[in-house]
Design brief:
The chain is of the alpha/beta class. The protein has a single domain, classed as Histone deacetylase domain (Arginase, Chain A). It is 37% helix and 14% strand. The strands form 2 sheets. Strands 4-1-5-10-9-6-7-8 form an 8-stranded parallel sheet, sandwiched between helices. It has a two-stranded antiparallel sheet with strand order 2-3. Strand 6, helix 7 and strand 7 form a beta-alpha-beta unit. Bound molecules: 8-amino-N-hydroxyoctanamide (OKS) and zinc ion. 8-amino-N-hydroxyoctanamide binds next to loops.
């Protein structure tokens, strides 16, 4: 299994974030990708290659043009506003009853218009890193198209919280969604996105909510008590043609393998009924018992089980990295998931 990664993805390097109502040390840091890369190298799964370059077209199939331009231009706008801070946070949002139909000119208005939380700092190189992360996913999709049975897109920054026109949850471009759409555009009939990150993949769900060609399933902490709070309930089943193609498995804090594995089993049976041509796994390591921002109790060996169960689906599989914040165990758990897949193939 090949791994795709670019050092450009390290250029987004926040030092602090607003989380749980206060300013804390950033969790989504370059060291996450570096430790995973180190373990992938040691595990010798196969070649580690940089992403290819892509035009913006593949990104614009998933994200709105004005949003992509905002991400591209935001550092210039920030400086033009006379700001000197290196990490930028929104602080005002067009929620319930405020207007969404006029995009403000001012950078502070734009920041709130295009985000859904204050926890995702942007900096001078965020766009470069996010674009590179998306190209990593796209290159992984191309490997699948060229006949590889599996590939690992070591995406960072992550993507699954990003909507068509919103960033949040450390995510700017929805890497998994961009890869799925690219596969569809290259002639793949049906794509499943299975999201095993601790947090609900609200962006991915929203992007494909009214579509039957991309099935979405997510196993995550119940949004009643966990970020992203406002999406991810079990009764969100899809709309219009997409009705019946969205499946959420919200689980309580403290969930360990017994219940998590049951949800995975149900999800895998649902995937088999859909019979996808390609499976994309939004792979988060944050269900781990010692993750600093999460409250599930998966153990290192449970990640092996996850990989092995996914292998049983018998589909070409693109793994796309999402969350996971316990730097010390991140590399081990990630390679366990991938070796679980490879050994069971
Ligand atoms: C933490 C609030 C911020 C959570 C961001 C979630 C990022 C993530 N109390 N998504 O998958 O890992
Ligand atoms: Zn997560």
């Amino acid at each position: 299994m090949k791994t795709i990664f670019s050092p450009d993805q390290l250029l987004h390097a926040p030092t602090k974030e607003i989380s749980d109502g206060k300013l804390v040390a950033a969790h989504e840091v370059p060291a996450r990708a570096e430790i995973i890369l180190e373990h992938i190298r040691k595990a010798q799964f196969g070649e580690i290659q940089p992403p290819k370059e892509f035009t913006l077209n593949a990104i614009l199939k998933v994200h709105d043009t004005d949003y992509v331009h905002f991400l591209q231009d935001f550092w210039k706008l920030w400086q033009e506003a006379g700001r000197t801070e290196e990490e930028v946070f929104p602080f005002v949002w067009p929620v319930h009853g405020l207007r969404h139909d006029i995009v403000p000119d001012h950078i502070d208005g734009k920041l709130g218009f295009y985000s859904f939380d204050a926890g995702s700092p942007m900096g001078a190189h965020t766009w470069t890193a996010a674009r590179s992360s998306a190209e990593t996913a796209l290159t992984g999709a191309d490997l699948i198209l060229s006949g590889e049975g599996a590939a690992f897109a070591l995406c960072r920054p992550p993507g699954h919280h990003a909507h068509r026109r919103l960033y949040g949850g450390y995510c700017f471009l929805n890497n998994a969604a961009i890869a799925a759409q690219h596969l569809r555009d290259q002639g793949v009939g049906k794509v499943t996105i299975l999201d095993v990150d601790y947090h609900h993949g609200n962006g991915t769900q929203a992007i494909f909510y009214d579509r039957a060609d991309v099935q979405f399933l997510s196993i995550h902490a119940d949004p009643k008590v966990e970020f992203p709070y406002y999406l991810g309930h079990a009764n969100e089943r899809g709309l219009k043609e997409g009705a019946g193609y969205n499946h959420n498995y919200p689980l309580p804090h403290g969930t360990s393998w017994d219940k998590w594995g049951e949800a995975l089993e149900d999800a895998c049976r649902t995937i088999m009924k859909f019979a996808p041509d390609v499976v994309i796994v939004s792979l988060g390591m944050d269900p781990y018992e010692n993750d600093p921002i999460s409250q599930f109790r998966l153990k290192t060996d449970d990640f092996t089980r996850i990989g092995a169960r996914i292998a049983q689906l018998g589909c070409p599989t693109l793994f796309v990295m999402e969350g996971g914040y316990l730097i010390g165990e991140l590399g081990v758990n990630c390679t366990k998931a991938l070796s679980g897949y490879l050994d069971a193939e």
